Each structure stands twice: as C-alpha cells, then as structure tokens.
Amino acid sequence: MYVDLPEAELRAYRGSGREPADFDEFWAGTLAEARSHDLAVTVERVATQLTTLDVYDVSFAGFGGQRVRAWLRVPAGTEGPLPTVVQFHGYGRGRGDEVENLLWASAGYAHLELDTRGQAWSGSRGATPDEVGSGPQVPGFLTRGIESAATYYFRRLITDAVRLTDAARELSLVDAGRIAIFGISQGGGLTLAVAGLVPDLAGAIARVPFLCDFPRATVITDAKPYKEIGEYLAWYRDRTERVLDTLSYFDGVNFARRAKAPVWITAALMDAVCPPSTVFAAYNNYAGPKQVTVWPYNGHEGGGVDDDLLTLGALREVLGR
C-alpha cells in the first residue's frame, strides 16, 4: 500500500530538514584533510574465469588516509580510456566478489565499484574495515559516531566515495572527462552526496536514494535502517537536537542543492525503507538538470530490471556510448 503523501503533493514537497550555516566549510575541510594524503592508487589484475571482461583489484587512500578497496571491470582486452561508471552500494553491501555485478562493464563501460567500509554483511562480501571507533550506538551504522558531525560514520563513507571518484581520474583505463556516478538506496544517497561535492561529472543516477530528509524519515517509517535512529533516541531522549544537527551535514537534500550534473532519480510509492517524500525532497531541491521516474506499485526494490534499462539509457545519454 502507499506509505506516504499522494503523488501530486510529493512533487511539491521540499523537505523538513535544516541546512547548517557551515555546511560548505565542513565539507571543504573534510575533503581538504582527506586530499592531504596521497591517493596512492594501486591496480592489480585479478585472474578470473571470465572471458569477456578483465577485472582489477584497486586500492586507494580514503578518509584519514585509510586504505579502501574497489573493483575495476572493463571489457576484455581494453587498453585505452573508457567512459566510466563509478558505483556506490546499498546498506549492508560491500563490493562483492570479482565475478559479480557484470552488467555495466558488459555494456562497454569501465566499472569502478566502491567497497563500503565496515559493512558487507548483507547481499555481498567486502574487504575494507572501518578503522574508527564509536560511542554508544544501535546495531547498524546510522548511529555510529552520531554524537557529532566530525565523528559520524557517514563522514568517512562519503569521503571514501569522493576519493574513489578522484582515484578514477588517475586510472589509465578511465576517460576522466566521462565519469557518471550511480547507486541504489544507500548508494543513491552517496551518489547525491558526491554529485554535490565533486564538479564536472557527466551524470548521476540515484535509484530509491537513502540518507535524505532525516527529520521526516525517522518519524514516518518503522522500517530499518531509519528505525535505528528512532531506537537510539528512544533511549537517549535528551539528544534529539544534537542528533538532528549531526544528520543535517549528511542529508541528501543539502547535497542536492549543490549538485549540477544531470541526474536521474527513481522513487517507489510503496517504499517504506526510503519513503517517497524523502526522495522527492532531494529531487525537488536538486540544482542541476533532473528527471524522476515513479514506480507506483513498488516498494524498495524500485523498478528492478526496468531501472537497469533506465540506467543504461541514462548512461548512454551522458557518456555517449
């Protein structure tokens, strides 16, 4: 069943959150610190049983100079630079194994896939730890380090995503002028964040994005992961304002206001995990060229294979392939 506002109201809804006065200063400082570390990108060919694709194990310096892993997949025999898809994953997923997630490289793109630090317990494996500790938290990642923006988990993860995009531009197999970013759910939220922080991207595709309009999301759904924040505040009742202040630095709505790359966003009207009003809050505030696709009868799975076809069409439009 529908879990949120009628579609006509969704198309006018602009969010319920706040924007910190020092939002840009916070992220400029965060990225400057990260970029003070040499990216130190390494690329190692991986032996697989695939005949149509070549796979490379990539590592680079992410947040705090900590090593982060990624996969790079390209059509077999590729020697020159290709238009590139940089992918960020959903909540609980890592980069998976080298023989997974073959669609984008099979379509002729270089495909660079971030390993989500410390996650990788649901749907795919990973190889990157989160090296930073935390105060009290609800199991999961939404309350890890939530005491302040400086310590919050997603500061590290968003920085990793930006640094992977930096690293892409150093790879000989990547056409640095034709990079599109892509993600589903948490990956969609990371896509909006990177679009707001990194200039000169060819395009962005954010499917049923997570991490948007936290003040509304945390009170209109009982579904995880947003429920983690509600469970935390049910115990730490005096911390609501502090928590909402922290989350405002990571809200996809605020990143969307700064994003200029053409974006394709999808929303599902029966999605209790990422309620459609939170998605439309980001979409309606997005500063660049934008398109939204609505799936009225779907939940968090969104459009499934139809979303894959939509993504391929968007990539063809912005990457010229």
TrEMBL record:
<dbReference type="InterPro" id="IPR008391">
    <property type="entry name" value="AXE1_dom"/>
</dbReference>
<feature type="domain" description="Acetyl xylan esterase">
    <location>
        <begin position="3"/>
        <end position="304"/>
    </location>
</feature>
<dbReference type="InterPro" id="IPR029058">
    <property type="entry name" value="AB_hydrolase_fold"/>
</dbReference>
<protein>
    <submittedName>
        <fullName>Acetylxylan esterase</fullName>
    </submittedName>
</protein>
<dbReference type="InterPro" id="IPR039069">
    <property type="entry name" value="CE7"/>
</dbReference>
<dbReference type="Pfam" id="PF05448">
    <property type="entry name" value="AXE1"/>
</dbReference>
